[in-house]
Amino acid sequence: MNSTTLAFAKLRVPHRALARLTCALLALSGTAAFAETTPTAAIAPGAKSYTVTLKQLGRNYPMSLRGVESTDSVNFDVRADSIVTGARLNLQYTYSPALLADLSQINVLVNDEVAASLPLPKDKAGQLQQQIVQIPPHLITEFNRLSLQFIGHYTMSCEDPHHSSLWAKISNATELGIDVSPLVLPNDLAIMPLPFFDRRDARALNLPFVFAAAPDNATLEAAGALSSWFGAQASYRGARFSSGYNQIPASGNAVVLVSGPDALQIGGLNLPPAKGPTLTVMTNPNDANGKLLVVSGRDGAELKRAAIALVLGNQALSGNSVVIDRLNVVQPRKPYDAPNWLPSDRPVKLGELLPAKELSVSGFNPGDITVPLNFAPDLFTWRDEGAPLHLKYRYTPQEKSNNSSLIIGFNDALIQSQNLLSQDKLDKGVLGGLKTNDTLSLETNVLLPLNSAALQSRLQLRYMFDYLKQGECNDIIIDNMRGTIDPDSTLDVSGYDHFIAMPNLGVFKDAGFPFTRLADLSETAVVLPDNAGASDLDAYLTVLGRFGHATGYPATGVQVIQAGQVASAADKDLLVLASGANQPLLTQWADRLPASYAEGQRSFHLSDLPMRVRDWFSPDPEANLRKTRMDMAFSGGTRSTYLTGFESPLKNGRSVVVIASTQPQGLAEATNALIGGEDYAQPIQGSLVVVRGKNIEALVADEQYYVGSLGLIKYLQWQMSRHVLLVLLLTGLGVVLLSGLAYLALRARANKRLQGEPERPTDYSKPEAPSTKES
């Protein structure tokens, strides 16, 4: 393990290989939003049916199939705890009226096996059609590819393989439905995070946490480490966590956290006394298909140690129960070293960001090579030309002159187009340098503009190979075009300083910044109410899951405190949660809060930010300011939920983010807004945001302080640009001062000359006689 040394004892059922083999059995995973239907009588007990559209599988636009033969695909995976018993595709499609019905068809393939071949009759051409295709369950494996292949012809004689009449479109509303039956997995830590999270399942993760009683701070820190780990695993799917006391869920999976030296009984589950930091996987007594992850210890410290062992060392665990004998974290985290963030201390190879096989394409229209780029939130890109990209690429040069090119894009914007020269335009020396696979290697340097780039950006590389027409009956497509981006190509952002204006709820929502500056949150303290309820704990666990999603690393260093202990965390960034009037800090820091709730009265600061042009953004921080223009207070009305940020009253340069609601259930609205989705039209930004259901309203964007540091020269340039009048004044004073000094120096020289002997004319034709002085 890279950062932790573990020793385990009391292993039970160490059948790791058997567990891995069992997990390879079939099941269905869905995506973002499945429609779950009630099983019919024909489906076995415990079975379920799911439907998912191609859009939910990641196809944002309809499939456009063109040419004599064209194929497009989407992937869907299979959960490890389910077996597929049936599948069907409700296909919605249309095709060209010019096609010959006897020679044209659409094939449905699953993992390159033909499931059905659909004719394209002339009388239905040009109309949106719908047809249900039954898919044999045996074609579906652990990881699956659903392909739609179009074969089209428009004439019996010679035809242009890329003729405009050769087309078919597959709607992304096409639905894939699958029936699954449950499969009982072994109680084995070797398969973690299964079944609590399955990477094959693209639905959002919903996982309950169960506490034996009101948890202490150490127990909450252990729970936060676990929720952030599961959030990192869930990634783009999103993760929500709920909490409960002394009650095992009636069905499904759950995480149970218990501490104490005595045996415990939780909701009918009898747990033996802990003998140390212990991790156990067992069957849910209320559901034969559900599992419980029990994290236990004799006290909160041991409980936290067991949780850290799981999130950092799960790859080494096996058996249904282990006791952690030793846990030493040997290397602390460094700023900005989150696994999900692009390293900012060295050039990064593209092969580190994308598997090598995904950097190679083939065919005349192969589509984009998309490299994900997750930047640190506080890269200072002011007046910068861009980050240097050194791109190495190879391609198959065509024989004759053409218009082939490599398109380099960044977040859908064109950056550069490189001509891919054909063999007749290459000199003999270059032709002689062709590799044995007939590819030509080239390099280019590009600057990627980062001054307005999103934190989650995309580098898009696309080979565009030109198709040359040879004339009637001579147009034969030889699909031998290949293009590759060398994995050793590099992107370098190490020249940027880390410096950002705060507060900024936009980077908090997208990357958890500034708390995630250290991936383990070791400089973060979460201030919970003294008597935190279930809604406060739900929000705490879900927000930490969001942090884990941002960094890809569990929050093993987070500290949980209450308002009375806040002085001990003066050198930390503070996340404050409040529901109702249960958070004393909201009263103590009322003068710093742009929003507050006290004695039934709500107060908000307002600026002209809601009146600005939507989604307008400038790389100049000063242009984004929307300072407070009005302070308003009112009573009554429905609940209010808000997020706000400000500089910590305890130490300059440290940040406070408050998530508060007038009612406990309002915190769920805030966490849902942080997770986001298509239902949220407005972004979270500025320093004060009000959330009402799915509606987000930014009220103030008042940047009051800065975090990070700049080099001396950069800092002086930046300050001069922000205070132009002051610079002009100082320049004027400098000119006056220099003029005065020059005047005084010349005047002194003149006075010196006037006080001495007058100078005699010098005759340069004769040597000057040595001077003598009279005594």
Question: How would you describe what is shown here?
Answer:
This protein is of the alpha+beta class and 775 residues long. The chain has four domains: 26-182, Sandwich (Jelly Rolls); 207-308 and 318-329, Chitobiase, domain 2, CATH 3.30.379; 348-470 and 479-491, Jelly Rolls; 499-708, Chitobiase/beta-hexosaminidase domain 2-like (Chitobiase, domain 2, 2-Layer Sandwich). Helix content is 17%, strand content 33%. It has eleven helices and 42 strands. It has a seven-stranded mixed sheet with strand order 1-20-18-19-15-13-14. Helix 2 (217-234) runs parallel beside helix 3 and helix 2 crosses helix 7 (534-551). The longest helix has 32 residues, at 724-755. The radius of gyration is 34 Å and the shape is flat. The chain starts with a strand and ends in a 20-residue tail after the last helix. 38% of the residues are buried. The model is unreliable at 1-43, 613-619 and 630-636 (pLDDT under 50). This is Cyclic di-GMP-binding protein. Residues 753-775 are annotated as: Disordered. It is a single-pass membrane protein.
Low-confidence stretches: 1-43, 613-619, 630-636
What summary fits the major beta sheet? 7 strands, mixed
**CATH level 3 topology of the largest domain:** Chitobiase, domain 2
SS elements, strand count? 42
Structural class: alpha+beta
Q: What is the strand arrangement across the widest sheet?
A: 1-20-18-19-15-13-14
Q: Which percent range fits the helix content?
A: 10-25%
Based on the coordinates given, report the CATH architecture of the largest domain: 2-Layer Sandwich
User: For the CA atoms, what is the radius of gyration?
Assistant: 34 Å
Query: Helical stretch count?
Result: 11
CATH homologous superfamily descriptor of the largest domain? Chitobiase/beta-hexosaminidase domain 2-like
Query: Which term fits the overall shape?
Result: flat
Cα end-to-end separation = 95 Å
What is the number of independent domains?
A: 4
